[in-house]
User: Which sequence fits this backbone?
């Protein structure tokens, strides 16, 4: 039998709070998705003004980061024609997302969930996702 | 041009709060989804212990209730063999959900969004969805 | 509560009229899709001779332009291997379309819908989409 | 943070062994799927002669039983026209399976995974699924 540690609802709220604060700071309303370590949705928030397409993309970024235990921008880097990773962006009906903005959430070296941001540029999405993790790690201690 | 009124993030939080309180009261951890009047997700919460299958079902109930402006249990009632409504439960790839637990959210006689609950029995899901609406209507006034 | 402005059926007819006139002028029968600001279809016309594949592609272009508030050719420009946006073209099961020919429709600086054209070259599709918007903005005033 | 217990690969082999022995005993080659408590596949075996359609159905039965924490035949019982549960069989694109043959696997009162059998009659599928659980619970002690 395996014993797994995963985000609970309270953890998810901290992640969302940190990401939202950064999104407000840079003035970009975001879609924010938090999933557990298996990629199942725990919490979601579309800030007023977040894009409709981002409802799904934020969830897919979080899913990919948690379930593959890899940041989506790391997949992006290798997902170039000629690389053997190329094509992974169409896997799972396109649900495996290689656009920057999805980060695994780790505690004590173990992936316990994922966070996905969408509505800004990939750089903005990544910065807000990281802000969510920073806030979570700082506050839960 | 049409002018539309729809739930914002603050409204969504009130709806979730009311539904969660009822879910805690009856001791059934739920998945709670709030969508706008077009059926796009605004907020989602999986209470600790909510079912994985309910992540999607709660969203589909909310989507159906808002986008069709009809409670899912009202579709259910008519979705019986021999009725001309029968078969609607397979529409949109099964996303149109006729299981009880999805309610449209109306303000001033206009549908402004939807709420979907899943993880309990349909009766429990419906009671929590209604509790969300009651709390929202009472608190926003 | 949010207040949203979106295209109505009359607006949609103007958009289609402008796009059709341009399509007839260049001699390319087109599929023309108009969606509201949430990406839901408001009107669609397949001119006699329009391509069958374009029935879906025109809708996806209009959906993408409205729901992401960005022209599909702008996504196309950034969706190149090595860019952090790469991979967005497979999002939403491929429904997020980065082929040129989808434009958001804005009034008073706000996106109120989208128009998507398909059956010609991307340049032809874009020109007809723009013609639809020009006709709409000029006529409604 | 939540702590979760789930089936590991060794547990999955025990479940499959018990199910296969019963399938051989009754002379029906089966598809056997084992998933963890989130519904993700851990192990799968198509006995020589197992049906091709059952490759997916066995997985969907196991997924449903684990992720909804309910035997598929229990859903079946309530999924009748006129019941508020009716329509659940088309949820998740039909992946939520209400055909008999999927059972949750519980240890110490907690669902740790699911087993799904397909290729025989529902009664045969259910008997083999139960045989898998019996063997697992007896052997792991």
Assistant:
């Amino acid at each position: 039998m395996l014993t797994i540690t995963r985000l609970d609802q309270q953890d998810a709220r901290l992640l969302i709070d940190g990401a939202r604060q950064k999104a407000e700071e840079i003035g970009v309303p975001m879609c924010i998705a938090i999933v557990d370590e298996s990629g199942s949705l725990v919490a979601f928030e579309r800030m007023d003004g977040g894009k409709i397409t981002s409802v799904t993309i934020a969830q897919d970024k979080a899913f990919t980061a948690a379930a593959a235990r890899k940041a989506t921008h790391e997949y992006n880097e290798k997902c170039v024609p000629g690389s053997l990773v190329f094509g992974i962006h169409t896997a799972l009906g396109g649900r495996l997302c290689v656009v920057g903005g999805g980060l695994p959430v780790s505690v004590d070296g173990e992936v316990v969930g994922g966070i996905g941001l969408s509505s800004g540029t990939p750089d903005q999405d990544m910065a807000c996702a990281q802000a969510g993790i920073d806030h979570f790690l700082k506050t839960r201690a």
